[in-house]
Amino acid sequence: MIHIDMDAFYASVEQRDDPSLRGRPVAVGGSRERGVVAAASYEARTFGVRSAMPSVTARRKCPDLVFVKPRFDVYKAVSSQIRAIFAEHTPVIEPLSLDEAYLDVTENLQGIRSATTIAELIRARIREVTGLTASAGVSYNKFLAKLASDHRKPDGLFVITPAMGAEFVEALPVGRFHGVGPATAAKMERLGIRTGADLRDCPLGFLQEHFGKSGPYYFGISRGIDQRPVRADRIRKSVGAENTFAADLFQTDEMRAALEPILDKVWRACESSGFRGRTVTLKIKYADFRQITRSQSVLLPVASRSEMEGIAFRLLHDRPLDSRGVRLLGVSLSALTGSDAPGEAGAAQFALPF
Question: Annotated site (Substrate discrimination), which positions (predicted)?
């Protein structure tokens, strides 16, 4: 299996297309004072700037940071070029996002016997076609391939063989493991689990007691074992949009007006895909960065933008809002179904775009 991950994808596209940005710390998204960083160039990362960081924090860490408005149509077009390169080698592609995917090349289209050779060819072709660099990890399962692609970023290639797998995992901090987020890593820390070796020493029953259905997964990966296949039909669970405002909103009338373009964007995505959803979720982030969500599910898929708007507005008015002001609003639609799917709602799956 191969895991391909583009290097600082959004920021690298911007630096490719604007030579004046090359070699400079770049943040895609946000602004000098408001919003959130969507992506950061490697030059910015040396200052500690990361994706999902508030713009004001990023600016404080890197005073020379250049903020660039995202161009998602461009990123999607480049992503399509990359996906076409993958398809030259295998149809078994599991996209995770616009810039990242797993490939199963066990039976590849060109009959190449070495996955490492295929990874090298893909990286070279990506550079030739797009002018961008990609990192690749090669291993015998998805978990290790993901770890391998991170190991020599940027523009790197690393292979974890079956003989290396368990030993490679035991030395890593659990926070580096795909599937272990910050909250889980903090819980593991409280339980004295700091490395792969610590995790491996935990009995399965202990992991199930503390981590529920994720326990067997953690038990396996601590030993370099991951049975998950590469799924070419990986589903999308929701579609949504959000906006961070230049000034905090305090009045519900302001918030209703601010939700209109967000609802438009979500419904356009539904119209273009032909899919609908049964659960509307309203996301609210306050001025102090505290975040809440409110959701409502309906029996049948939401049939119109006006119906989605009505639900979103009811969620907005459901309970009083914090008096400190709202800096971000978002709307998402989940429990997705296909408009032409047979049978009951929920029978269809929504394929992730790449």
Answer: 10
